[in-house]
Predict the 3D structure of the following.
Amino acid sequence: MVIIMETGADEAQVKAVIEEIEQAGFRAFVNPGVERKVIALLGAMDVQKAQLADHFAALPGVERVARISEPYKLVARNAKPEASIVKVGNVSFGPDSVTLIAGPCSVESRAQTLETAHLIKEAGAHMLRGGAYKPRTSPYSFQGLGKEGLEILAVAREETGLPFVTEVMDVDEVAQVAEYADMLQIGARNMQNFRLLQRVGRTDLPILLKRGAGARVRDLLMAAEYIAVEGNHNVVLCERGITTFEDYTRYTLDLSAVPVIKHLSHLPIIVDPSHSSGEWRYVAPMALAAVGAGTDGLMIEVHPDPASALSDGPQALRPDKFSALVGQIKQVSQILGRSVLKNETADA
Ligand code: PEP
Ligand code: MN
């Protein structure tokens, strides 16, 4: 249930509503709307619902009470009608621009990461990506450089000015990764690791939450709700492909998730065409299709020498291909009346 305040409702009226909510045994969360405040009621609510709705609707300053039938409350669009903007340093994810994250699948060495970081910045990327802790299907595959990888990413940020996102796989590693990273990534395999979601929800870093390969949009939004309910509302969602019967691509990129999520939630949604394709030749067309579908950003794997990559080489774009793709992304965005986010670090 959400309580929608009148446009002119004052602080005292909002406060009185919050007190009433708490007295009834619920938690209140105030969504800071530009025009009007929307207060969400959190907590189990069964039989009393109808009575409560009438009670709150009659309070001073309340415009109306809406019952949210979806199981997610904080991330729902009807709890906060305007789209959220999530900031990562001087980069932002939101409805007016297309934000570009690029970089290698894994941080393999200082030289590989620094070279990639400089090249993607030149091409126009806004953020660097790279895994220091890697979730690999096989325990015999390269598992990432761990802390050394985080240190390398920090040097790359220092040299280029690009903030970076990197995956955190375990509750016990959150504090360490948070010391270095500008944004924490929850990978597809951990989308329903509820303890991990709660733990990153207690950090003050923005979170990139990737959709699980077997997860419905509803499950993804519930995972985001786990983070938000802990107090961290800076969540960017990422569609990265789901498992279907098709196997010419690594996963099937569910581009319909973009408009669906924009309808259901106020959170930004970006697309990863690399992991879904599994092959570099499909990355550019799907990236452009994602812009057409209204994505708020893209995350693309780039490697200076894909043939020697320690993970996901076949899907990595060479830097020159990435650079050409950025040009096309700008053209498509322009046609659709959206801009590619201005690269403040590059223009500085
Ligand atoms: C990644 O982005 O590094 C990654 C492992 O992707 P996913 O979790 O989507 O498989
Ligand atoms: Mn990868």
